[in-house]
Amino acid sequence: MNESVTFRKIIHIDMDAFYASVEQMDNPELRGKPIAVGGSEARGVVAAASYEARKFGVRSALSGVKAKRNCPDLIFVRPRFDRYKEISKKIHRIFHDYTDLIEPLSLDEAYLDVTQNKKGNPSASLLAQEIRDRIFTEIGLTASAGISVNKFVAKIASDYHKPNGQKTVGPEEVIPFLEALPIRKFYGVGKVTTEKMYQLGIFTGADLKLKSEEFLEKHFGKSGRYYYHVVRGIHNSEVKSQRIAKSVAAEHTFESNLSSEIFMLEQLEKIAQQLEKRLQRHKVAGKTVTLKIKYSDFSLQTRSKTLPYFVADKSLILETVKELLYQERMKDSVRLLGISLSNLNTDSERKKAVAVQLKFNF
Question: Where is the site labelled Substrate discrimination (predicted)?
Answer without folding.
Answer: 19
